Amino acid sequence: MRHPPRVTAAGLPARVRIHEVGARDGLQNEPRPVPLALKLELLDRLADCGLSDLEVTSLVRPDRVPQLADAEQLLRRLERRDDVRYSVLVPNRRGLERALALGVAEVAVFASATESFANANLGRSRAESMAEIRALAGEALAAGLALRGYVSMCFGDPWEGEVAEEEVVNVVDELFAVGCAEVSLGDTIGVATPGQVKHLLGALGAAGHAPAALAVHFHDTFGQALANTFSALEEGIEVVDSSVAGLGGCPFAGSATGNLATEDLLWQLEGLGIATGVDLEGLVRTADWVCRALGREERSRTLRALEQEVRG
Fold first, then answer.
1. Are 18 and 265 in contact (CB under 8 A)?
2. Which of 19, 32, 182, 288 is in Cβ range 3.0-4.6 Å of 53 for a Cys bridge?
3. Structurally, how many domains does the chain consist of?
4. Does residue 250 have an active-site annotation?
5. Which candidate in 154, 180, 250, 291 is catalytic?
């Protein structure tokens, strides 16, 4: 299978860690039920490709996200590997209780940079959400769990429009203050542009948040996810969230389309000579497999370009 020509660029990280969210963020908005066996096989295939950070599910109310109603079954049946970090999104303290009972070692919490999305996604205000996160984080850290934070709507909101940088900085401040080891900046509806990414990361740097503790999470609604990623790399970001085959979209933000496809991200990183530890051919084959298993068209450009080579 073809690989990109490698030409390194000055000022970029030597290595990038890919945080794969396909099994959770990628599948949460599928229109048809996804069998548990398919989810487990997907996680195995992703680990086989060398992806060492897998976000596997969310312990959310089944009526809120029906596609993840099997979260407890999945966690009980998942064969965890020593060289893979498995994380679970928990929306509240009840979710954390379930995670602890299931032996989860790493959890993620999410906050919104806007009031509108906090109410749409969580059913409570930003202040109420942060109070819940503070309590949840204290219990998670006391139990020895690793803690990751997400900030949604960092670059734009479907109800409020452009989001002020200081609002994002304030939420990031709070997430680090409660003990998050890493905070991921989400372009939930995919409206960010490269200059905006640079400017926000500059504002966060000025507030004392080094790139080493931050990650980026781009959606590709306007085709800007890879450009935005490159802009973030130039600013020193070393962790990028992505989803195999570009699966995903937020069920609580109607204009959000697919995530940055992991294979598109990997093509770019390989071409830049940036190490990831991930096998491109295996990943493209996994993307092809999951698209066919779900009965959906290929969304990523890399998969489309290499489809004939993958299928022989």
1. yes
2. 19
3. 1
4. yes
5. 250
